[in-house]
Amino acid sequence: MIVEMRTGATPEEVDNVVQKVKSFGWEVQLNLGTDKTVVAILGSTTGQVSTDVFAVLPGVEGVTRIMKPYKLASREVKPEDTQVSVKGVDIGSKRIVIMAGPCAVESEEQMTTAARAVKEAGASILRGGAFKPRTSPFSFQGLAEAGLELLAKVKKQFDIPVITEVVDPQDVDMISRVADILQVGARNMQNFTLLTAVGRSNRPVVLKRAFSCTITEWLTAADYLLAEGNKEVILCERGIRTFEDSVRFSLDISAIPVIKKSSHLPVIVDPSHAAGHYSLVPAIAKAAVAAGADGLLIEVHPKPEEALVDGLQSLTLPNFTKLTEELKAIAESVGRYI
Length: 338
Ligand code: PEP
Ligand code: MN
Known about the structure:
By secondary structure, this protein is α/β, with parallel strands linked by helices. About 35% of the residues lie in helices and about 20% in strands. The strands form three sheets. It has an eight-stranded parallel barrel with strand order 7-8-9-10-11-12-13-14, surrounded by six helices. It has a four-stranded antiparallel beta sheet with strand order 2-3-1-4.
């Protein structure tokens, strides 16, 4: 932590800061500039104390943390890449893992048709939400337990692992009985009670980035999962809210290399929720693979025009098949495969 004193701060004010630092058992390094004094605080436990403790002292201009707030998700703690293995599908390996399916589980026919087609096209994980976090309480909230049962049936029939969202900490055990991957949605990225419950489960988890959160906040949220002992964490960039309104959200493509640099966790991209429109999904998906994403989470619906949720951004089955073909060349060009 660095404490910057105001121009003209008195020696007593500087000493007051130094005494406060020493009261925590830490060391100081004083930098007496011509105009300003800077106090560097040296200690391995500074992360436990708020910067406010120093910021409120007389004569202090500002306090900056040098250490990152996240730990377990950082490369400093674990330099080598994490791979998450889901029934033989390795996320974070050379293979680009494709998870695809409808936004919400709606019917057996819908899920059966989707599962058959996405598997045939090269997807290795089936998606489908049984519990949907909706902006309005009057929107379709998902089929809940009935949707989960349908997922269980289709998963068995097509021998394909499934990813589905959990919105309530109390449902973690029930959903884990069917889900091979638990999804924590963007709106729940900082629901710390939910993160703790999912962290205690023994299921791999996809943690979607909240559309209003920084990468640092996202990685710090991942620490909640890791701190409970769940090491199988996959990050998912799905677009953030910016001033741009020609897309539903702006996909932060730079999040991929930033995550790769600062974290050991695998990162996948959801082009569907970023795009908001099916016509934009292929380009965003290709860009994500080119930028180093470890996988994609794509919404696909047998009849998008009849979808109860997110039909406009869902690919038709033929369009999804076309995309997976096109992605092969992109993957190969960056030393990966589909
Ligand atoms: C979803 O995957 O259907 C979903 C609701 O995504 P997000 O949480 O990213 O909005
Ligand atoms: Mn959706």
